[in-house]
Amino acid sequence: MAGGKIRKEKHRAGAGGSTPHFQGGIPFHKSKGQHILKNPLLVDSIIQKSGIKPTDVILEIGPGTGNLTKKLLEAGKSVIAVELDPRMVLELQRRFQGTPDSNRLKVIQGDVFKCDLPYFDICVANIPYQISSPLTFKLLAHRPLFRCAVIMFQREFAMRLVAQPGDTLYCRLSVNTQLLARVNHLLKVGRNNFRPPPKVDSSVVRIEPKNPLPPINFKEWDGLVRICFNRKNKTLGSIFRQKTVLSLLEKNYRTLLALQLSQQDFSDDMDTAVAVSALGESMGDFGIDGDDGRDDEDMEMDDAATNSKSSDFKEKILNVLKQGDFEEKRASKLTQTDFMFLLSLFNKAGIHFS
């Protein structure tokens, strides 16, 4: 609904053809993330837990046929609905045309990632799950900051958002989201509450942007976290001995030395909103970390095959880890404070991640 391309499809009745799901004569397509909430009690529960004020401008992404939209209009001042599917846009317009709510509903037809979102106080949405990660960070990059977002996600994605250090699902997505916002799980939602039912269960999550944001370079931050969580259960000493990691960091180090940039100059070039928005795109659809399963020994820098400068740089990296007592620690157990401290140690040593 709010993400991906809409294709025209012909449906043939009879053997061999799957029966499409309809509401108001409109077929829904699972491939486009079109799963409409059909349980009115669940819709009421989401509205209640959202904490909507009568003065709120509400953003809804992927409103579909308007089941949630109707309740949002009753609770807030106005609703801005972003919908990609032109069939759903027409259905929304027909549903509310001539009603007292029509003047308080603004429908934007288009891809949410190509739209400049207007001002809103709160976002409440049941989104296509394939856009979960990029949408989360597009919202967190929005300025001015909104009060909160209450969004329906696939259950596993939601659990990643709220995971804590030591949890199985704790990952780069967890760390980056919790750096920028306070995240709380509100409600479990079974698949049978939708038409057509998805293959997975869902959860409703509340995301409240932090204000002010932590005073760090977000591109630098994600560069460090990306490296650490690529193999989150390995020790940092093992990760930072990898040939590819050392090569990347040494290249950054030599380039910055050549350009004679100070750490402050490097940080001031950062556009915070752009960096935050890019986080979601770089993590893919579900923010799942990769682990290629290769043996650590195959990835370590061979000192005998490198020149003295590279050997000195490797020692510089390891000294930073030892200084902060990080060499034997694992990303899967590190807190936000740990990552901030580690980043500060690297940056003070002239080592950067972007």
Automatic annotation (TrEMBL):
Q: What is its EC number?
A: 2.1.1.-
**One GO MF term, please?**
RNA binding
Basic residues compositional bias: what residue ranges? 1-13
In which residue ranges is the amino acid composition biased (Acidic residues)?
Answer: 288-303
**Sorted alphabetically, which CDD domains does this protein's record hold?**
AdoMet_MTases
Q: Which HAMAP family match?
A: 16SrRNA_methyltr_A
Keywords on this record?
Methyltransferase, RNA-binding, rRNA processing, S-adenosyl-L-methionine, Transferase
Q: Which protein family is it in? A: Belongs to the class I-like SAM-binding methyltransferase superfamily. rRNA adenine N(6)-methyltransferase family.
Q: Which PANTHER family match?
A: DIMETHYLADENOSINE TRANSFERASE, DIMETHYLADENOSINE TRANSFERASE-RELATED
Q: What is this protein called?
A: rRNA adenine N(6)-methyltransferase
Q: Please state every residue range assigned to the domain named Ribosomal RNA adenine methylase transferase N-terminal.
A: 42-211
Q: List the source organism.
A: Oldenlandia corymbosa var. corymbosa
Q: Which residues bind S-adenosyl-L-methionine?
A: H35, L37, G62, E83, D111, N126
Q: What InterPro entries has UniProt attached to this entry?
A: KsgA/Erm (IPR001737), rRNA_Ade_Mease_Trfase_CS (IPR020596), rRNA_Ade_methylase_Trfase_N (IPR020598), rRNA_adenine_dimethylase (IPR011530), SAM-dependent_MTases_sf (IPR029063)
What does UniProt give as GO cellular component?
A: nucleolus
